[in-house]
Structures are given as structure tokens and as C-alpha cells.
Amino acid sequence: MRELSAMTTPNPPILDRHRPRYHFTAPANWINDPNGLIHWRGTYHLFYQYNPFGSLWGNMHWGHAISTDLVHWRHLPIALAPAPGGPDANGCFSGCAVDNGDHVLLMYTGVGVEGAQLPCIATSSDDLLQTWTKSDRNPVIAGPPPDLETIFFRDHTVWQEDDTWYQGNGSGIVGKGGAVLVYRSADLLSWEYMHPLAVGDERQTEPFRTGTGWECPDFFAIDGKHGLIVASHDNGGLNVAWMTGRYEDSTLSPSRLGLVDAGPSFYAPQSFFDANGRRLMFGWLRERRSDDEQVHAGWSGTMTLPRILHIDPDGLLITAPAPETAALRTSHHNIDLSTIAPDGTVPGIHGMALEIEATFLPGTEIAGLIVPRSVDGQEETRIFFDPAAGTLTLDTTGSSANPEVVGTLTEAPVAFNHDGPITLRAYLDHSVIEVFLNDRMAISDRLYPVNDDAGGVAIVNASQLQSLHIWTMAAILP
Length: 478
Ligand code: DQQ
Prior knowledge:
Layout: E1 29-40, E2 43-51, E3 61-67, E4 74-80, E5 92-99, E6 104-111, E7 117-124, E8 133-134, E9 150-161, E10 164-173, E11 177-185, E12 192-199, E13 213-222, E14 225-234, E15 237-248, E16 251-259, E17 266-273, E18 279-285, H1 291-297, E19 299-300, E20 302-303, E21 307-311, E22 317-321, E23 329-334, E24 353-360, E25 367-373, E26 380-386, E27 391-395, E28 409-413, E29 422-429, E30 432-437, E31 441-446, E32 456-460, E33 465-473
The chain binds 2,5-dideoxy-2,5-imino-D-mannitol.
């Protein structure tokens, strides 16, 4: 295994204009999935898939950061590293954290010498969770159920019912579709296979494909209902699906299904309960620029802002930004709507770290935001709500004059009643855009404008606007 002193970066990442300033990123190099999220002794812990040796995927370790307010983070040393010759010799892949009273237990995927991917345990009892002891029982499950033909077996969600622990493992059953396989245990160490928690259908195409395999399962009970989130794999296509429905005998029978965030960059989210009983979620926002550019930049990948999950009475998963995000607001502009130019330009606003809250009166016409936008409109990212079609769209196809960057047009159906006023909330942070509609659904993407004057804001259908608030957002990184 390579030494961590080899942890270098070709360019100090802070010099990269596309590096977010108020979204979490590692000090340098590659990150992917959030892992082991937990609120432990008053501190939020964000572990994450991390390559300390470069800005492309590989050498998977667990990076570690802590926060007391969910938005300002302090980097701590790497929490888990592969152990030569051990069951995680070739990587510490994704997993979750369990509060087990006097200690925290991580259930993660160890990638062994021969490449087997199996559940492993590490525990810690110190306040800041900096010292981890790997179990000498690793791996704690010897392999996928022998009578199932699985396409992979990795990533874990653990919950407890009465005195019994349950573990759901991400998988896919050949010829069927994605699956989460449930095991039970009295002590978190000895596990007995039960059956699938849920199985998808790889032939399903509507309302979207749920794929051939499900990674990063996340199972929870909130608002008196049960929900499952999976990162679905489909020959390279990636979707993050939620499903809710009846849960009985460790089996979820989904009756509602949707995308957690329809954007092309969002993947492998994980959620957890904080001390106040809120279900909070972070997701990974992948880069949408070339490998060469990521290597040159010296970093890759960022986390979403913290989001809160609910399941509404109709069984729909609701995603809202956590209120703590407001702590990052600095200067506030309550825009006088009469000053907005006929072409929708909002005067006096320019920046790449903004929160925009635009509320539109109910109407029949498309309403939206163009943010960020260069002065001549050569680079613009469009966000709009179409009441007739009932869709929310995020269009980054015109976001960059760099021909290497190909944006995406993401159109997502709005599953809830949208007859009343519509609030579009957009968080722009250099190469990150996260959009919320009525603080109920989210779409995010990455964008890489190269014009120095790219940070303008314009309104689509300003005549329909009821109010417009814009805040400059503070940096959380030095
Ligand atoms: N990333 C991890 C896996 C997971 C995948 C490895 C999803 O555990 O299945 O870095 O991004």
C-alpha cells in the first residue's frame, strides 16, 4: 500500500475557479459517496469515499470531517484505510454507521485481496471518532446467498427492530433487477440471510429505469411510513430512486416510486437521524467535466448541502434544504421588482456563491431563473417551472463556452399539487447548482462557465414574480 505522505495535489485546488466554496469538498483529490453519517455526542460526522492519492476514483479510503452546525466542516485525518493482506486490502468501500450505545460501529464493504466485496466492521468509542478498530471477525458475512445469482454485493444499511438488528446489502439479481438483501443478527457480528427487502425489475422503463443493480441502499422509517433509497446502476446509467410502501416481515412492497434528485450529477446519497429526530441526507455531486480537467484541477467531487427528508401523506418523498443552510447567508438583497430589466436581468447582482429565492404567483406560463448568466448571455444555466406540463427543468446545456463541457437538460415531473404560488430556490456555488421547488423536490447539476462576468441573474416571466430575495453565501473553506 502507498504511504499517505504521497498525498499531493498538482495544483492547489483553491486556485480553480470551479471549486465550490460553501459545499463540502475534501482538502484535495477525489471524493465520492458520503459514508457513515452520524450525529454522535453533539457532533455531525461526515465520512466519505476518498482517494488520497489523486483526483480520479481509486484507492478507496474513508475521509472524515466533523461539524457542530451541519454547514461548517473541519477536516480530520483519514478514518479507514485498506490493510495490506486483510479483507479490505483493495479498498474500504461504502457503508453506514450504527450508534451502539457506548460506541459507533461502521458496517462497510471491504474489498479483499482477490477482489471479493464483503461486509466488514470497525468500531470507535472516542468523542471525535478518530480511532477505529477493525473487527477480527471481518468479513462478517462470507458471501452473497449461495442460491442467488447476484451481479454485486456491497454497501449497507442497518436498522434495529426490538432486539434484532437488520442489514440490507446492495445487490442485483441476474435476470431480475436491483435488490436489497436482508440479513438479521442479535449482535451485529453473526448474520443470517432472510430474503430481499425489495427487488426491482430491470425491464421497467417508466417512469424511469431502476436498473440491474442497486448500490448504496438506505432504508428508514419517518412520518409513520417506510422509505428506501437506492443508487441504481444500469449499464453505466445512474439513477437515484426512492420507494415507499407497506413494510411487513422485513419486506417492503413499494407503492410509490420517484427520483430523489433527477439531476445527472447526484448519486449515492445517504441519510441519518440527528439528535432531534430529523432525517438528514447528503449526496455526492459528481463532476461533469473530463478526467484530464479533474486531474489538472487536483480535486474532484463535492457533497450536496444537507437536505431534510419527509414522506408526505400520499407516500411522496419530500426533499428540502436543511434550515441550517441559512447560516451561510451574508448580504441580503430584497429586490425591488420594478427595477428588473425588460429582458429579466436583475440589476446589481453578480456572484458565483448565491442563494436565490424567487416566488411566482400561480399562472399558466413558464416561470424561472437564469443563473448564472454571462453579461452577453453566451453562458447561461436555465431553471424553469412549466405549470401546464407540470415539470421542473434544469438546463445546463448552455452553461459553458468550454467545448469540452457538455451540459444536460433535466426535466422532472412535479408529483405534487402545484396550483398555488411557486418558489424556486437555487443555490449556486461556482460549479454547483442545487434547485428546490417549493422546498419539496430537488434537481442539481454541475456547470463550468469560463467568462469572468458569468455570475449574473435573470428572471423568466418577471411579470409573474411575487418576491425575489438573493443572498451572497459565505465560504466554509479557508
Ligand atoms: N462507490 C463505492 C461503492 C459504491 C459506489 C466505491 C457508488 O461502495 O457501490 O467507491 O458510487
